[in-house]
């Protein structure tokens, strides 16, 4: 009887040992996946979880333990502090890999201020007399700066409300940026003033009436179109022109402010040039009028003392075109040839 009991006990012990083998193997297999700290972490939302900081976190991976840094920024966590926090959530035996700190970066989408201005100008383009987007100057009530959004806000800036008052030049525009995660889109409202500008030739110094502009006297700047109108001068055309009136430095030039420079002035000694077919003659004269190239002026012929009219063709030069006599008609020439020539002679008086 005792031997049968002993035999049954040995069989049960053997069965227990065989059953325990898989469990032991499983424990040994799990011990291989040791929780290990990461040196650097990137997160997409505003929470840092256990699974973000360590590999092989298991069921504890979804536990939130820290608030993430601000959008688009990076922060650091001391390893000693992280281990203490993990212990409170029964996460132990973590391999620190001798790390001293962990860097945490929060992903973000950045829309810089230049892109915001471009999108706003496009939204206002052509409204109530405003011209092309590239010619619109914007002033914000509050500078938007660079805009940082959640990384999931991947949509384009879409204007959903655009208001502009041409009298006050004020705008009020609202944009939306869609979120690929399906949450509500991000809304951005911008207010301020918008004016159309044009390139203008601006003086770098005070000028007097009669001054001839040099290249160093004029620069190109963008100025409000309403300030200049449609008569803005172009720099390349302004250089070499003569001022019709006095203007201060910093003012924009209009085409009406300038004229071609006088090449001949009143009472100036000039050269009169007579041009005709096969003839080129120069005579001294005195200008009775001033004028630019192409102007018609009166000149006193100093040789004949007669006033003549000519065209200014150069500095101190007035040209006079002499009409070439036309040939007599053929009929007249024929009658002239056939008509007899009468000669009369007068006898000399007798001495």
UniProtKB/TrEMBL annotation:
Keywords: Cell projection, Cilium, Flagellum, Periplasm, Signal. Residues 1-25 form the signal peptide. It is found in: Periplasm. Gene3D superfamilies: 2.30.30.760, Antifreeze-like/N-acetylneuraminic acid synthase C-terminal domain. Residues 325-351 are annotated as: Disordered. Transmembrane segments: none annotated. This is Flagellar basal body P-ring formation protein FlgA. It comes from Bradyrhizobium quebecense. The gene is flgA.
